[in-house]
Prior knowledge:
Blueprint: E1 4-9, H1 13-24, H2 26-33, E2 37-43, H3 47-54, E3 59-61, H4 64-69, E4 75-78, H5 85-95, E5 99-102, H6 105-122, E6 126-127, H7 138-145, E7 151-157, H8 160-172, H9 176-186, H10 194-197, H11 200-214, E8 224-225, H12 233-241, E9 244-254, E10 259-269, E11 281-288, E12 292-299, H13 303-320, E13 351-361, H14 366-376, E14 381-386, E15 395-402, E16 405-406, H15 407-418, E17 428-432
Parallel strand pairs: 1-2, 1-4, 2-3, 4-5, 5-6, 8-10, 10-17
Antiparallel strand pairs: 7-9, 7-11, 9-10, 11-12, 13-15, 13-16, 13-17, 14-15
Helix pairs in contact: 1-13, 2-13, 5-6, 6-11, 8-9
Amino acid sequence: MNPIKVGLLGIGTVGSGVFNVLRRNQEEIQRRAGRGIEIAMVADLDVERARAVVGAGVQVVKDAREVIANPEIDIVVELIGGYGIARQLVMDAIAAGKHVVTANKALLAVHGTEIFAAAHQRGVMVAFEAAVAGGIPIIKALREGLTANRIQWIAGIINGTTNFILSEMRDKGLDFDVVLKEAQRLGYAEADPTFDIEGVDAAHKATIMSAIAFGIPVQFDKAHVEGITKLGAQDIRYAEQLGYRIKLLGITKRTDAGVELRVHPSLVPAKRLLANVEGAMNAVVVQGDAVGTTLYYGKGAGSEPTASAVIADLVDVTRLHTVDAAHRVPHLAFQPDRMSDAPVLPMSEVVTSYYLRLRVADQAGVLAQVTGLLAGAGISVDAMLQREAGEGEKQTDLIILTHEVREGTMNAVLAQMQGLPTVLAPIVRIRKEELQ
Length: 436
């Protein structure tokens, strides 16, 4: 059987990894796929660099539309990134009857509903394992491996840059700004790290996982997104004293009222496996009603880990290339006419527990004032820590861990606390996730 022909759009870090791994493991991949997979054409603005990567025998062009227009190309791999030209090229490839493999989480989180609808109508596949958690096969696990389960929640460390920064802050006791510069020097953080450190990248990935887990449309615009830029080294130390570690989590959860979709720093009990994921590694925990808790751990980025996921998609598409479209696994795991209209809940309706750090005057009656406000709102305290004021100091830190409460209720109480004359600085609030 002739090899299936692939056109590669973009041959940067991931694209070159795809080409090299596919060439190195060609025989093994063909044994799994049932036929050869051949990159026949590459589009990249830097034609000379692309030729240096692929060598002779592969056609290199500057215009990606030439790849899409080539009738011999069966699968288009989009590795350009972003929302702009990538969206148009993916839609053009679908319209031309090409299957698409993409690592573009931003594109799918924002335009996934449109893209999947077009692919369904045209009878082609859009595969995107590499879009979430790099080399970890979490998409396949959610779409296929856990298909018997009613998934209850997902919580993941799905951005390696922020996890590296938080690990370094904890290990070395350094503040965020110092560690960010070191992460940039080592290549873990981009020159412009905004998407990573503000939680946007993790929210793109959480949005995709939420859609697959619960059979809802991709709705990135409804995700609650907070980054790690406001975290202080002292909060990481206090969390440690209380038996927790702070991680940036992407969380999506099924509730009776709707679906939670949120990214923010969270206190996680130090005994949980997720709390012990260090450096630039990724991990995702999935809770299903039948299987219980499962953990997926590995490299979430990098040339060859991401290439591993892209090639897995190429193998899947190759196997299913000739299968009736109606019998393929749906893009978002559920049949398109059976998608749920469950709402994504506003953050004010989310129920969770909290870590609060208050800078307060070191005088009698302060603790009673603060706990009185909590009690008045029906919020019970789980644990408390008060730093002893040093000699001559007139203020101190008061740390409170609460039990579960609706976020809207907590917001109202925080506003009251902030208005107390004995509260001397903005209150730090970090959500706490027990992950049970």
